[in-house]
Input
Amino acid sequence: WAYAVMNTNPKAVALIFSRLSNQYKRNNFTLLKENKSQIHQALLCYRFEHGQISRLPKALIKECLMAFASQQTNPSKLQKDVVATFQSLGYGVNEEVLCTKTGYSIDAVIILKNSEVAVEVDGPSHFIGYKPTG
Output
């Protein structure tokens, strides 16, 4: 997670991932769900921001994705209002859709005739009194 926030050198992260991989293969440690979520965020940054491919074991990558994707969502009043507005305009809306590529929850997916549009609703509650969760 810190890697994603600080945008650390990918070579340094590769070394960390290598050590993590070795420890995982030896079953030398236990990771909490929060730790797995943080590793997943670092993996996303490593892949999408730097075009790097992780050599972490596929099983660990999957565990990290599942830990991250299983975080409970809590739609804000603003988000509910935005969804209700789209619905009142006659659009189909799917709420809290899991992005299988990243594990993030998309607030709303608006269904158009031939496509879908992802909508993220980030009002003041996303930034005021915010405490990182993983």
Remarks:
- The CA atoms of residues 99 and 129 lie 26 Å apart.
